[in-house]
Amino acid sequence: MPVFGALQTAASGMNVFRTWLDATADNISNMQSVSLTPGGAPFKSELVIAQANGDVNDTANHGAHVVEIARNADTAHPLYDPTHPLADPVTGEVNYPGVDLGVEMVNMVAAQRGYQANLQSFQAAKDAYQAALRLGH
Amino acid sequence: MTITPITALPSLPSVTGVASPTAPGSPEAAKSFSELVSSGLDNVQQAQSSADSLAQQAATGDLTDLHDYMIASTQAQLATDLTVTVRNKAVDAFNEIMRMQI
After folding, report:
1. Least confident residue range of A19-23, A39-43, A64-68, B21-25
2. Among B65, B71, B85, whose Cβ lies nearest the Cβ of A136?
3. Residue A94, phi then psi, degrees to nearest 5
4. Per-residue 3-state assignment (H helix, E strand, C coil) for chain B
5. In Å, how far is B31's CA from the nearest CA of chain A?
6. CB contact under 8 A, B71 and A18
7. Measured at the alpha carbon of residue A36, what is the angle toward residues A33 and A38, in degrees to the nearest 5?
8. Interface test mutation site (partner A, options B42, B54, B82, max chain A beta carbons within 10 A)
9. CA A115 to each of CA A15, A51, A57, B35: distance values in angstroms, whole numbers, following the listed order
10. Which residues of chain A does B71 touch, with a Cβ-Cβ cutoff of 8 Å?
11. In this predicted structure, what is the pLDDT of residue A84?
């Protein structure tokens, strides 16, 4: 483990939660995004998948990283609107995304709190290192 | 009412996993103080230059993660503080020896 290892560990956590925050913002912004092809599948919400660095039982590697940003399997929300230019010509329905705003808001708060927790552990590590340096004074 | 006598404490298990100390003069301990200081300065230089490049990215708007710059600058600051503290200690020790009456 390097000298300032706790700082790097907190930084990896910040990256994960920043990515999650970005994903929730993207999901909320695309709540009404329909497909450009009439009757096509709409936007599917993004799902950030994080994993520990190294094996789960590995004590040599610290921190976490984002493995992939997957697409959620949420079902589209069809709305009958035959005058819409992107409506299905047969059924007259427009497929709206199945993004749940409530779920996204909860995810946003969780991501925000996770980011803040990593900031706090970074601050604690920094304070500890500075206190150790003050030993010499 | 009977009072139960105090029994002897069970013996502690032996400590495992502690590495035996390396003998002085072994390759690990052979690094001189000047080598340690110069390798420490190399680390400081590395931390400073990475903080510098991130600061440049922040100024040009290419920085994707704001915290990356703050982390790099904090690490550079801590590394510099550590080097300055070690150097001050060495200079103090030298001055103390120079003041010694013979």
Report:
1. B21-25
2. B85
3. -105, 130
4. CCCCCCCCCCCCCCCCCCCCCCCCCCCCCCCCHHHHHHHHHHHHHHHHHHHHHHHHHHHHCCCCCHHHHHHHHHHHHHHHHHHHHHHHHHHHHHHHHHCCCC
5. 18
6. no
7. 110
8. B82
9. 8, 16, 24, 39
10. 7-8, 10-11, 14, 122
11. 87
Q: What is the pTM of this model?
A: 0.74
Which tokens in the block code for residue A128?
A: 């500890």
Tens-place pLDDT, residues B11-50 = 777 767 666 655 555 555 567 888 888 888 888 898 899 8
In terms of CA atoms, which chain A residue is nearest residue B70?
A: A11
Determine which of B44, B65, B66, B74 to mutate to test the interface with A (most A C-beta atoms within 10 Å).
B74
